[in-house]
From TrEMBL, chain A:
Pfam families: Oxidored_q2. GO terms for cellular component: plasma membrane. Keywords: Cell membrane, Membrane, Transmembrane, Transmembrane helix. This is Multicomponent Na+:H+ antiporter subunit C. The chain crosses the membrane at residues 6-21, 28-49, 75-95.
UniProtKB/TrEMBL annotation, chain B:
The chain crosses the membrane at residues 6-24, 31-52, 64-95, 107-126, 132-150, 162-183, 203-228, 240-262, 274-292, 304-324, 330-350, 371-398, 404-423, 454-473. It is a multi-pass membrane protein. It comes from Methylohalomonas lacus. Its main location: membrane. GO terms for molecular function: NADH dehydrogenase (ubiquinone) activity. This is Multicomponent Na+:H+ antiporter subunit D. Keywords: Cell membrane, Membrane, Transmembrane, Transmembrane helix.
């Protein structure tokens, strides 16, 4: 399963970088969304993928017996999803406001602050 | 259990929450702004005192012992950075009273300042790399909102670049954290010291180190990743610019210092060589960019970039003296840089423009403002006996001892060019006569500025200028502090021992 996921993650990263390199700010945000999902999937994959092995401890034992799935990556991903959701909501509002103010969605036309 | 470690995080959080409770009452928010940052300053100085006298302070969240629980750790580097953040927070809160418009305060200027400080202090004090990512996000979100309060066109354009590149760097940080966890099975920094050294394929550790380097390189605006900074830092109100200039890039620098002394010192010949090249190019590109500008805030923004180079140079040389120099330089830089932005703000409120071609005659009109500008400006350029001289002196001396002649030459030339930029601002804004074409606007602005606002602006500026003088003239105690911090960085075992106890 891990090799497939690795390819998926790689494809997601490549797609998101491509989208971020486009000039339209809408595509920029789509790129950011894909990027955060790619990062989450990556953490999920490096944590090791196991099916049907909840990390439960049998009665009278101090450790789970046999193999178990690591729950910590999932906690990390959950935190990261919440954070990226908030940040991306901000980014969407930002491009909307920027479009209203600048009347343009082309990044090449937003150069007045560059030096 | 040392609750004093958590105070610098808790106080701004509580202050931020309280300001939100009193969202409709602007005067209450102003008071909370002053009292909250003042309390933060007291708490952080207390924390520094405790850390200096009693060694590294550790607090395990919910009494879950490291490496399983999340710990807050105050070593000297973290405590020093927290004090600097608090000083700057307090200065900017006072300055905001006079300069931030009613509308911006009504839209949450003060709560955002508090939350930004909470994120910054949390990033300085955490002992867990995922937790570091979370704090970085806390401070980023606050900074996004602060950057666009006001909603002008320049702010929107700057914010798009700032938001995109900073999000990219956060996601790279998250990826690096995830890969580190996948490789070692721990997120605790102290635990990682041993676990990373035990990784069989050290090449992979270097790869992850490079991911962290790129991520923190974007945050600290190092070459070639700094382009978001000059495009955005000059757009928000000047009090916000000053806070950003002093604190945000320094979070990246702090993280570089933390990671590349504590965790990634296994292949110094490779990683720190890259850091050294980065440092050199950062200095040169920053200072040359500044030389081409004619707008006060843009000049100062580019100088942030060039100064970051000196700090990274201290880290990259990686000798005890160089690390002392790096810490000393951070202390000097945060205070001086923010102060220059604050002085730039006063210039704007007296003249109605930041453009050097439209302003002038300030020395004749307000000579004390000229003096208050000269102290941080000459300090930034490294004129003795001000703070910048000693920072540069220590770092360059470390470079000479290492016989890294190239970087020493770059550092000296960049110092000279910094002086050129500062003299340019001095000659144009203070020395030459006010250009006739813009005299009317300037006179209007000067007349419209109430004395009370001017006094409120000058209080933090004078205080920061005095601090600069103190760091310069009283360099010895500051040097002692920096060298104690550098000693802790040189010996990761002290940190590991303090966090994990004797079980190691």
């Amino acid at each position: 399963m891990e090799p497939v996921m690795a390819i998926v993650v790689g494809a997601l990263f490549a797609t998101s970088i491509y989208m971020m390199l486009r000039r339209s700010i809408v595509k920029l945000v789509i790129g950011l969304i894909l990027l955060s999902n790619a990062a989450n999937l990556l953490i999920f994959t490096v944590g090791g993928m196991k099916r049907g092995l909840p990390p439960l401890i049998d009665e009278g034992m101090k450790m789970p017996t046999g193999g178990w799935a690591d729950p910590l990556p999932q906690a990390l991903i959950l935190t990261a999803i919440v954070i990226s959701f908030g940040v991306l909501a901000f980014a969407v509002v930002l491009i909307h406001r920027a479009y209203e103010v600048v009347q343009e969605d082309d990044l090449d036309k937003m150069r007045s602050t560059d030096t | 259990m040392n609750p004093d470690v958590a105070l610098p995080v808790l106080i701004p959080f509580i202050a931020g929450a309280l300001s939100l409770v009193f969202y409709r009452s602007l005067s209450v928010q102003r008071w909370i702004g002053i009292l909250g940052t003042g309390a933060l300053l007291v708490a952080s100085i207390y924390l520094l005192y405790m850390t200096y006298t009693q060694g590294i302070r550790v607090m395990a969240m919910g009494e879950w012992a490291a490496p399983f629980g999340i710990v807050l750790v105050a070593d000297l580097l973290g405590a020093i950075m927290t004090v600097l953040a608090a000083i700057l927070g307090f200065a900017v809160a006072v300055y905001s009273l006079a300069t931030i418009s009613r509308d911006n305060i009504a839209y949450g200027h003060f709560p955002l300042i508090h939350l930004l400080l909470a994120g910054v202090c949390g990033a300085f004090l955490t002992g867990d790399i995922f937790n570091l990512y979370v704090w970085v996000e806390v401070l980023l979100v606050s900074s996004f909102a602060l950057l666009i309060l006001g909603g002008e066109r320049a702010q929107m354009e700057g914010a798009i670049k700032y938001v995109t590149l900073n999000l990219l760097s956060s996601i790279l940080l998250l990826v690096a954290v995830g890969l580190t966890y996948g490789m070692t099975g721990t997120l605790n920094m102290a635990d990682l010291v041993g676990k990373l050294a035990a990784v069989e394929n050290q090449g992979l550790v270097t790869v992850i180190a490079m991911l962290f380097l790129v991520s923190f390189g974007i945050k600290s605006a190092a070459f070639p990743l700094f382009f978001w900074l000059p495009a955005s830092y000059h757009t928000p109100p000047v009090a916000v610019s000053a806070l950003f200039a002093g604190l945000l890039t320094k979070v990246g620098v702090y993280a570089l210092f933390r990671f590349f002394t504590l965790l990634f010192d296994h292949d110094v010949g490779y990683t720190h060589e890259i850091l050294l090249w980065m440092a050199g190019f950062t200095m040169i590109t920053g200072v040359l960019g500044a030389a081409a500008q004619y707008e006060i805030r843009r000049i100062l923004s580019f100088h942030i970039v060039s100064q970051i180079g000196y700090m990274i140079m201290g880290l990259a040389l990686f000798t005890p003296l160089a690390l002392i120099g790096g810490v000393f330089y951070i202390m000097h830089h945060i205070i001086v840089k923010a102060n220059l932005f604050l002085v730039g703000g006063v210039v704007y409120f007296l003249r109605g423009s930041y453009d050097l071609k439209q302003i002038g005659g300030l020395w004749r009109e307000k000579p004390w403002l000229g003096l208050l500008f000269l102290v941080p400006a000459l300090s930034l350029a490294g004129v003795p006996p001000l703070s910048g001289f000693f920072g540069k002196f220590i770092i360059i001396r470390a470079g000479i001892e290492q016989q890294s002649w190239g970087i020493v030459a770059v550092a000296l030339v960049v110092g000279l060019l910094t002086l050129y930029s500062m003299i340019k601002i001095w000659a144009e804004a203070f020395w030459k006569a006010q250009p006739e074409a813009h005299a009317e606007r300037a006179a209007q602005f000067t007349a419209a500025l109430p004395t009370r606002s001017l006094v409120l602006m000058l209080m933090p500026i004078s205080a920061l200028a005095l601090l600069t003088l103190f760091i310069g003239i009283g360099a010895q105690p500051v040097y002692e502090l920096a060298s104690a911090a550098a000693e802790q960085m040189q010996n990761p075992q002290i940190y590991v021992q303090a966090v994990l106890g004797d079980s190691q």
